[in-house]
Amino acid sequence: MANAMLLPVLLSFLILPFSALALTQDFCVADLSRGDTPAGYPCKAHVSAGDFYYHGLAVAGNTSNLIKAAVTPAFVGQFPGVNGLGISAARLDIAVGGVVPLHTHPAASELLFVTQGTILAGFISSSSNTVYTKTLYKGDVMVFPQGLLHYQYNGGGSPAVALVAFSGPNPGLQLTDYALFANNLPSAVVEKVTFLDDAQVKKLKSVLGGSG
Amino acid sequence: MANAMLLPVLLSFLILPFSALALTQDFCVADLSRGDTPAGYPCKAHVSAGDFYYHGLAVAGNTSNLIKAAVTPAFVGQFPGVNGLGISAARLDIAVGGVVPLHTHPAASELLFVTQGTILAGFISSSSNTVYTKTLYKGDVMVFPQGLLHYQYNGGGSPAVALVAFSGPNPGLQLTDYALFANNLPSAVVEKVTFLDDAQVKKLKSVLGGSG
Amino acid sequence: MANAMLLPVLLSFLILPFSALALTQDFCVADLSRGDTPAGYPCKAHVSAGDFYYHGLAVAGNTSNLIKAAVTPAFVGQFPGVNGLGISAARLDIAVGGVVPLHTHPAASELLFVTQGTILAGFISSSSNTVYTKTLYKGDVMVFPQGLLHYQYNGGGSPAVALVAFSGPNPGLQLTDYALFANNLPSAVVEKVTFLDDAQVKKLKSVLGGSG
Amino acid sequence: MANAMLLPVLLSFLILPFSALALTQDFCVADLSRGDTPAGYPCKAHVSAGDFYYHGLAVAGNTSNLIKAAVTPAFVGQFPGVNGLGISAARLDIAVGGVVPLHTHPAASELLFVTQGTILAGFISSSSNTVYTKTLYKGDVMVFPQGLLHYQYNGGGSPAVALVAFSGPNPGLQLTDYALFANNLPSAVVEKVTFLDDAQVKKLKSVLGGSG
Amino acid sequence: MANAMLLPVLLSFLILPFSALALTQDFCVADLSRGDTPAGYPCKAHVSAGDFYYHGLAVAGNTSNLIKAAVTPAFVGQFPGVNGLGISAARLDIAVGGVVPLHTHPAASELLFVTQGTILAGFISSSSNTVYTKTLYKGDVMVFPQGLLHYQYNGGGSPAVALVAFSGPNPGLQLTDYALFANNLPSAVVEKVTFLDDAQVKKLKSVLGGSG
Amino acid sequence: MANAMLLPVLLSFLILPFSALALTQDFCVADLSRGDTPAGYPCKAHVSAGDFYYHGLAVAGNTSNLIKAAVTPAFVGQFPGVNGLGISAARLDIAVGGVVPLHTHPAASELLFVTQGTILAGFISSSSNTVYTKTLYKGDVMVFPQGLLHYQYNGGGSPAVALVAFSGPNPGLQLTDYALFANNLPSAVVEKVTFLDDAQVKKLKSVLGGSG
Question: What number of other Cβ atoms are within 10 A of residue B46's Cβ?
Fold first, then answer.
């Protein structure tokens, strides 16, 4: 339909009909410096392709620690491009014998995709305390509903790696042991609200650096 | 599993695997000074336990007024900790013969819990103008769907008190009489849009401080 | 404006202009028999005032149990009127020495209002494992953000009662101890994902009826 | 790139890569017969172009009534194609001297576009009972925030017509006068919750067909 | 009930019971100068009736261009009053032979209301690539689900005009041809991802001002 | 605190305090047989661990087709466990020279994680038709905002594989070429709304199996 002879004319005309849309919000890359709101961070004024890209998950996390595992997040704090988009990710590295201890994500569901090795994973429902558990091999996917306790550990003889995606840009990560033992919550209170024995509480507080 | 002898080593290792999560948003206490957004106020940078606590509902409202009732809010403006959490509260004190006049909450549903006395409450559906009404005693609960006209009044011989919770941090409160008679909306307009008589409108405008 | 002499005529005319709105959805009382959807239960066809009223919180829960506490819910399952309204409630009865053990609500924030006695309450953030704790007296309010671990216990010498409201009709309640010890999750797994000692795990599994 | 000689081969190959997506939900035309859910009606199994089309707003409403106005809705009940799409519409016909009386939409904001004549419109804020009012001519737009009291009336010497759009498929329409006077809410209660005089209440109950 | 003799007394009393609600958010007119957030713009501190009013759609768009059509938006960027209200609008002017080319709105569904002339409109589903098309006359309404490709063109012998409403304040407008040909996306890439011939791509890049 | 001697007694007591929560909704596995709602499928009555697990992404898609690529979805239709959880996934296999052609997801943002090979990916903004493009290697992540046109193609000398996650359980996939050429949309209409030449349209209609 378009005729090349008309090009110089067409160009100026064609652009006019939709010229007033400058403020359209296709995305909202986080400007972390301005602080958060309940819906996420204010939008950065100038963006480039790099804002939608993250390299941090390409590198294996360091599993030379007690749990022999590492969680490398690509949440909004590390990857501002996901702000407002309802999604984020993380990399799980779990050495042989390693474990990602019992935890919840208060603000997102999780989808785990195994890229290497064997992972045993489970979550526990609130209604009936039912345990849902699976052995996952390379290429398998498992989903963990928002806010429910779950865990993953290496179930094989070689390192395991997984990509996890979250249904929000800032899912949070509350490790039960850290919540109980890695702070100044008094041992007496921990014991009262968990039924754990005093010796057990004090031992884990010591391990995880808690006081009280 | 953890061995006390390993503690100094474990401590440093254990904390590493999850150290990059500093920006996680568990909550967003309102920084009221920076103004609102459609999703609520920007988050305060530094919070303490006091931000999640409110004492203002412990004190009875002053019911020495014409309606013999008082509404004491714990909305985001009074209780910044509820910002972004989808909930807020208020205290209702209704003296004998008192009434919380016809009103709506444009931005939340309401759940009322009677802590003292007897309250007669009702709401009106939009579809069929059906009235749903109940006499509520201590411990009873009633729910009022978002945006619908409702009222409460003391139905007994002693003061009534209720806690009301809302499904949002800033529910709003539009009292029909105040909307019509406590401002400068011209009497002729009020009459046109309500079918009320001129004398009635002028009387209530006078009572409620309206002009025009 | 309206003139009484015109009434018979007006009546029929006035109703006509808005007669086609029969399907308006002011509320959606749950028809529990038809099963849930991600947004709540299908709406009951015929409703009455009783659907928006609940008496179950007027009665104290039985605290003659190990934890000396009782949680009486008014969630959608007990109180179908809250379906789709973004709110629900529960009553907490905590005898002297009683405790509501460490738990989360995966699907709602909680607002607690003390109606009697003294309650010590706290929650733990995920980002820094910070503990936010308060002693609450009659009339005090505290808010617990969605999905975060929290607890309440009686901090006084007389029974404590609280009304709690939730920012959703079906908040869920995941008690950490029940999730770990009241099911068939093998002790070896519990130990692996919590760092708890074998004897501790087996003891609590036994107390809470778990196996494995 | 595609070469016409390869067409028979390409056809079968090209379709394969994306063949498993049969359940994608692009839209959800309401199956009104199966009843509502909090998020709208279940989806109709088979749809056609006619489901996304509505002719009902092309015809002027009958304004031969007391208010000399008519509201013709294209809500989900009349126009099932808007189900789940966050939008609906209505046509306003207001004869000379006509009025759409004071009302709210509990479940949507409204955007009004004048297609003919002159409309005087206003809404009232809840915070300060401030009146926001405008005279609107052909082509003018005004927006009315969700849940706030508002009204429209013909401000000129010829019939006025407007298209109104809503930010939800089922906005509701609560006319204050109908809620108060067109049902069996006892006059004594109406008077108590509105401060209106008994004679005024009884007069309007009579006009609008209420009892009690 | 109210007695004029009591007015001076009543006035002060009546206002007290609800005096603490100053921060209620009935609306949130955009303060465009402060930049966007994922939920919309921060709220303007001081508003007036003019903020809820827009005149820009009263004037016909200039259709003296290649497509013989004009889209005049009343999105949040032009009409800050719709911020946070889940709705916006635009005016379509389509001259005889004119067309609004194939496009999507990434962030809203669209409801089109024909105010003049005849419009042929269609959208295409993603699941089965089914085309849903209608000829629309004055007063007809059609709805276009969020994110799906659609188009409109004048199907009659006189100019056509439509009001379109959107289910969000900032719907976006992605014209397929502009996305492909009006930028610096290399021709080789365009050809690779569209199967279009090189000559075709270069011709349209030239027409629409693209490079590469 | 718990004493083994008390166990038989404790067991019955401990379970009582929270026994009334049977209807809690932790998740809502899709019962696909009952049809969709705007918020997703009704919940399956009985679930097991297998409902939260999907094996289908472990197997490489067949790339022996014209585009030398395959998209293997794990949307709610294939993986009912993601229903209501705001997340889903897919596997991308792109052979050397292969391409996932220009497309949008109307109902979700996409996060792509390269597990093997090199992928060139880009998306185009609606506001300014700006192209955001990146070369992605193993371990790299890129995010594509909801509803915007984007593409991926193999940029290396070996097969590429990626896991993509979506911010919704049913993201949709609208391939521009299929929408235009793989159906019965008349060529004249395609040409009118795209500016493409007749020969080009007919060629691609033929390749993709369209008619008209």
Answer: 6
Closest CA to B178 of E1, D149, D182: D149
Interval C145-175: pLDDT, tens: 999 999 999 999 999 999 999 999 999 999 9
**Mutate which of E15, E21, E25, E52 to test chain D, going by most D C-beta atoms within 10 A?**
E52
The mean pLDDT of A162-172, rounded to a whole number, is 97
- Measure CB to CB from residue B71 to each of E18, E23, E83 and give the nearest one: E18
Q: What is the pLDDT of residue C24?
A: 66
Residue A79 reports pLDDT greater than 90: yes
Q: Tokens representing A212?
A: 């009280």
Distances (CA, A) of F187 to D120, E207, F176, F184, F210: 48, 21, 15, 8, 9
Chain E from 187 to 206: CB within 8 A of any F CB: 189, 192-197, 200, 203-204
Nearest chain E CA: its distance from A99 CA (Å): 35
C137 within 8 A of B59, measured Cβ to Cβ: no
Report the residue of C151, C177, C207, C211 to disrupt the F interface, i.e. the one with the largest count of F CBs within 10 Å: C207
Residues of chain C with pLDDT under 50: 1-15, 19-20
SS (H, E, C) chain A: CCCHHHHHHHHHHHHHHHCCCCCCCCCCCECHHHCCECCECCECCCCCHHHHEECHHHCCCCCCCCCCEEEEEECCCCCHHHCCCCCEEEEEEECCCCEEEEEECCCCCEEEEEEECCEEEEEECCCCCCEEEEEECCCCEEEECCCCCEEEEECCCCCEEEEEEECCCCCCCEEHHHHHHCCCCCHHHHHHHHCCCHHHHHHHHHHHCCCC
Secondary structure of B105-122 in HEC code, one letter for each residue: CCCCCEEEEEEECCEEEE
What is the spatial distance between Cα E144 and Cα E171, in angstroms, rounded to a whole number? 12
Chains interfacing with D (3 or more CB pairs < 8 Å)? B, C, E, F
Q: Report the candidate in C74, B7, F88, E88 with the shortest Cα–Cα distance to residue A21.
A: E88
- Cβ distance E36 to A14 less than 8 Å, yes or no, reads no
CA distance C81 to chain A (A): 21
Q: Is F71 near chain E, with CB under 8 Å? A: no
Half-sphere exposure of E184 (CA within 13 A, CB side): 4
Of E37, E92, E93, E205, which to mutate for an interface test with A (greatest number of A Cβ within 10 Å)?
E37
Q: Which helix (H) or strand (E) holds C203?
A: helix C198-208
CB contact under 8 A, C7 and D38: no
Residue pointed to by tokens 């809705």: D73
User: What pTM, to 2 d.p., does this model score?
Assistant: 0.94
**Residues with pLDDT less than 70, chain B:** 1-24
Starting at the earlier edge strand, list the strands of the sheet with D88-94: D69-74, D88-94, D160-166, D110-116, D141-144, E53-54
Model confidence pLDDT, tens digit, residues E67-120: 999 999 999 999 999 999 999 999 999 999 999 999 999 999 999 999 999 999
Output the tens digit of pLDDT for each of chain D's 212 residues.
Answer: 344 444 444 444 444 566 445 556 899 999 999 999 999 999 999 999 999 999 999 999 999 998 999 999 999 999 999 999 999 999 999 999 999 999 999 999 999 999 999 999 999 999 789 999 999 999 999 999 999 999 999 999 999 999 999 999 999 999 999 999 999 999 999 999 999 999 999 999 999 999 98
Give the distance from residue B4's alpha carbon to the nearest chain E alpha carbon, in angstroms: 48
User: What is the distance between the alpha carbons of residues B107 and A153, in angstroms, rounded to a whole number?
Assistant: 45
Q: What are phi and psi of B135, to 5 degrees?
A: -95, 125
Please check whether residue D163 is in contact with residue D113, taking contact to mean a CB–CB distance below 8 angstroms: yes
Please say if the pLDDT value at position A26 is more than 90. Answer: yes
* Residue of chain D with shortest Cα separation from B171: D126
